[in-house]
Design brief:
Blueprint: E1 3-4, E2 9-10, H1 33-36, H2 53-79
Antiparallel strand pairs: 1-2
Length: 81
């Protein structure tokens, strides 16, 4: 975690300027372990695996449930007109 001794606070890695200075006071910050790690935009694209079965089943259940609630809503509207 980057630390600015002049401001006496920790900084989040994206807020540190590209030259390694504090965005508030402009003085150099003490680099933490997070600054040495490449940012997600710089890393190579990793292949993702297939969608898990339980997530597919959850999606199907959600579609069925919302479809049934829509049918009930249409029936309620027709009944109350």
């Amino acid at each position: 975690m980057p630390w600015c001794p002049a401001c006496d606070r920790f900084l989040s890695p994206p807020t540190v300027r590209a030259d390694g200075t504090c965005p508030t006071c402009g003085r150099p910050v003490e680099a933490g372990r997070d600054l040495d790690r490449p940012r997600p935009a710089e890393t190579e694209d990793e292949e993702t695996g297939p969608i898990p079965f339980h997530l597919k089943a959850l999606g199907v259940a959600l579609v069925v449930y919302l479809g049934w609630r829509f049918v009930q809503g249409v029936g309620w509207v027709i009944q109350h007109l």
